[in-house]
Design brief:
disordered C terminus, homodimer, six-stranded parallel β-sheet, alpha/beta, DNA-binding
Chain lengths: 219, 219
DNA sequence: TAGATTGTTAATCGATTAACAATC
DNA sequence: TAGATTGTTAATCGATTAACAATC
């Protein structure tokens, strides 16, 4: 019976961080790890590691810690890496290109299989990752049963692209356009807003400078 | 006397979202806004908007809501946009290029003034945003009193670049390399890890599929 | 065994939301 | 004035941490 408990974004983010760190530890020759080690490496508390593990049904040995191989295997299955995850990109501009060339995905079982763009200049079906015209997107996604899409088109085109995606088997979207997408059916949408991130850094740097004061004494 | 209260990342993220939305509302001809409107537009509760505003010392009229112009002005000063924020980029690969071409920064008072790369091929001092050799980074940052840097180099070079930045006036860094940077002095570091974000989406999509169950019944 | 580490519960912390008195 | 909206306090919610009994 499903408990209906759903891990939140942060919990899953930590899980992937654990996994990445475990890969590294393994490559360094380690075979077992303690919650303590892992916590230090990822930058959280040991309590948190154990609680997260408990949450995902991962258990270790009361004195020997956790076997790295078993841990990696368990996480692989949790993160759905039994099969390769096919992803398409819409928008082959700079960000799209950056993602197409990003090496990190391969070892995580994520594979970007195609990109789409309205600009005929950017279309090229003979690259490692082919870039097709926009019209091909829906047929392609349906035929290959694509579950994941990345949106890197300008803001004014993002909702339109998203609507088109919702008319395919796509169930998860990573959105780089700086806006909230409105979904007409269930779909997991995560936003990456580089502008906001940079502005946030700017804020903190300035705040530090002017010895900020809040509420009572503001300007 | 400084209260020592420090807004967290999420609060500041919301603040910038409010600001962006206010710009949009203004361009649509609105002059005043209620916490209710703004909340709906950004996707939070009205209570949250009012609490955030109170936190930053922003006040409105008990019946007339908030004057958009005054609100924008207030936020501009809070987010440190009195002067233009100069930013440098290290690593002129795909992500670096994407950021150099990103239009959104200009209107926020953020200006990317230069980029640096070890690859002589990528260097070009005659573009709108010049790309210099790595050796120029520290002298440039010192001479122009740069406070903000963006790291878009491969993982193996990121810490080295960061160390170099810490030897300049830089106080805030946006890091795209998928690793934790270690700081030898105080510096505001925010990480953008696209790989993690995508993996997180993958997780949720898979979880939905296999009707996940946790803790008790796992594998 | 003695010592160390897990697994889990209770305590703490912080952030969000609801409610409502103040007031325009 | 009556009605609506703010500003603020108290209640709620959820996530993190500390503590410790179980146990390898």
């Amino acid at each position: 019976m499903d408990k209906g408990i759903r891990p939140n974004r942060n919990t899953v983010l930590r899980l992937t961080q654990y996994k990445n760190m475990l890969h590294r530890l393994k490559s360094l020759g380690f075979e077992r790890v303690f919650s303590d080690n892992l916590a230090g490496a990822v930058g959280v508390t040991a309590s948190q590691v154990r609680r997260d593990f408990a949450f995902f049904g991962i258990s270790g040995n009361k004195r020997g810690g956790y076997a790295i191989d078993a841990l990696i295997e368990k996480m692989r299955s949790l993160l759905g890496k039994g099969s390769i995850q096919k992803v398409i990109i819409v928008g082959a501009g700079h960000i799209g290109q950056a993602l197409m060339h990003y090496k990190g995905f391969v070892k995580e079982g994520i594979r970007i299989v195609a990109a789409f763009d309205i600009d005929a200049q950017k279309q090229d079906q003979h690259q490692r990752i082919p870039v097709f015209s926009m019209e091909c997107m829906q047929p392609y996604a349906r035929e290959h049963d694509i579950k994941l899409g990345i949106i890197c088109v300008p803001e004014h085109a993002a909702q339109e692209v998203f609507d088109q995606m919702l008319d395919t088997p796509i169930e998860g979207v990573l959105n780089f356009a700086p806006m909230r997408l409105i979904a007409h059916r269930d779909c997991e949408v995560h936003n990456v807003n580089v502008g906001l991130e940079l502005e946030t850094v700017v804020y903190f740097v300035n705040a530090k400078h002017q010895g900020v004061r809040y509420a009572d004494s503001a300007s």
